[in-house]
């Protein structure tokens, strides 16, 4: 039995779906009503990481855990890893990020993930880290602008990133959860090619069959947009990350998807085509 956390997100949901297609899976969810993976072998346990009783219920009889955390303030990795050890869990596969292995990355979010990885290492549970590059699905933040006026607004339109399809990240995680020999390994996961925001805009234009225009934000406008969504330390971390991308630090391609799944990583054009409806006016209620 495998426990999946983060199942209402892009990667965790796909991990749960892939596992449910092969056998029983348990899901820990803060909001069970948002879980979209269902079936006779799917069990959903309501609870939060800070609720040790809920964690213990979710971990009872579990062999392996897929761990997704995103709080910048709560010690959720430590909480889960400690409870997992007490429950006799044999393997913990944690979703991390590729920048933790890059010396030049020192933004808040990267530092937090390094600490989270260390907490898992020190728990005594065998671990595997899945470290993806930027998700292709991050471009869904452009959907409102595309639907309303056909404009993609982003910072640094010509900086390349080897972004990755969340489905490929999930496939790597499932390979680590269900295979052998992955303990103590850290897997960097990228897409098959670096693409820029301008190139992504062109792909979306072709997929949607409508002209789209790219508008590069100034640093001040980008900061303002981020501060409308995130606390200042998190917004500044995103801006630091963007500077690293501008310098070419996120363009490298790694073959992990093909090595662990036996098939090539999906290109951005493929992801965009498969999610075209998410960029339509009807889907956004515009």
UniProtKB/TrEMBL annotation:
Pfam families linked to this entry: NAD_binding_10
InterPro entries found in the cross-reference section: Ergot_Alk_Oxidoreductase, NAD(P)-bd_dom, NAD(P)-bd_dom_sf
Residue ranges occupied by any NAD(P)-binding domain in the UniProt entry: 6-178
PANTHER family: PRESTALK A DIFFERENTIATION PROTEIN A, PTHR43162
Protein name (database record): NAD-dependent epimerase/dehydratase family protein
Taxon lineage: Bacteria, Bacillati, Actinomycetota, Actinomycetes, Kitasatosporales
